[in-house]
Amino acid sequence: MMTKDEYLARAAAEDDWSPGWAAVDEAFASLYTGVNPPHLATLLPARAMFGGPEHLDGCSLYPSPNGYQHLLTYGMSTLYVDEESFGGEFSGWGYEMTMKVRSDDPDDCQWAVSSLGNLARYTYTSKRWFEPFQFISGQGNPLRIGSDTRLTSYLIVPDTEVGGIDTVHGRVDFLQLVGITQDELDWVAGDSPEGSLERSRELARRMADSGNPHLVTDLARTESLV
Fold first, then answer.
1. Are 155 and 204 in contact (CB under 8 A)?
2. 105 found inside a domain
3. Which residue range is the domain that position 8 belongs to?
């Protein structure tokens, strides 16, 4: 890891250096060697730093050979040079969000990109962050508005393929959102909050054992695993 003097020297020499962004890219490059994924960048006027409502700088969609798009956010961690963030314990919120959407077409994943953007806005405005094996209720609404999917909510798990990294700004983990049905959400939430963590872990295990080891969100899934 570089020293702070080295960090500041490189920042002064390279106006466009984005060490946090580069570290996130490198983590995914180790899985998707030689892949240049489509990147949906947020328009500058819409970004929160310029007074807009969007807290993500963008989202990349990596095409997996396993038949899904692997979405990755940029903006939950500290992406750009920030002297005060150097050497921190966590980079920004300490994570970027991911999602694996069953689709061969990245253009068919705009609903998921929008969902990740909404969750980023929630964290930045409420100051409440996400952790592994929490769940996010969709209040009974389909994840893709206007569709007939049975998936209504999200389970949060560590990304099944990309591990966390240590950057010059601190730790960045990759938290993967997985679509679940209303029955699954109700079971995970249960009547005793103290048991929800173990039920979340158990649901993730059941999903993996059902032939979905990478916990892909498939809008066509109809079966409940509880």
1. yes
2. yes
3. 4-129+156-179
